[in-house]
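Give me the fold.
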Amino acid sequence: MLNWELKNCCNHDQVVFLTTISICTVVILALWRTIFLRPFKLITVFLHEASHAVACKLTCGHVEGIQVHADEGGTTQTRGGVYWLILPAGYLGSSFWGMVLILASTNLLTARIAAGCFAVALLVVLFVAKNWTLRGLCIGFIIFLGVIWVLQETTKVRILQYIILFIGKCYFSFYIYDDLISRRVHSSDAEKFAEVCPCPCNGVGWGVIW
């Protein structure tokens, strides 16, 4: 007999974790159109475009440049590679990196590793960025992560874990719906994919599938 009772499903730490995720989701959705979340939105755009670049490299293509714009848009210039794999990589990659960051936030050691890898990636991109918006974003987040790291080491609050969790939640929240499903212009990756795919499915359909 299956036991559907949830009396002993979660310990204290699990309840805190699930509650924190719920609070992050509400905060992100409530403040999505405000200036407070713009830096986090730009960093999600950066990793979205970076996922396109990774897919291009994995399919033997050449990445000519990555740009993140102040209007929260982004572009990845590629040559070669498998186009129908590069297109969905932005959003599938966003989901993957979001999952990695959320899982990393559950432990202080893994949160430190995630923050360190993130800072190194931003430092590398700083030297290959094609515009000053992306360069400024990299510099700002490197400094931000450094400050958070110092606060983590000098206080008892697990602030680094919360920040990593918050960044991870940005991928699983309104960003994907806002830019992939609700968008109706032909500049979205889903709409472009619908144009090259012979399947009878429009951009919204592909957005839901992804």
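The longest strand covers residues 62-68.
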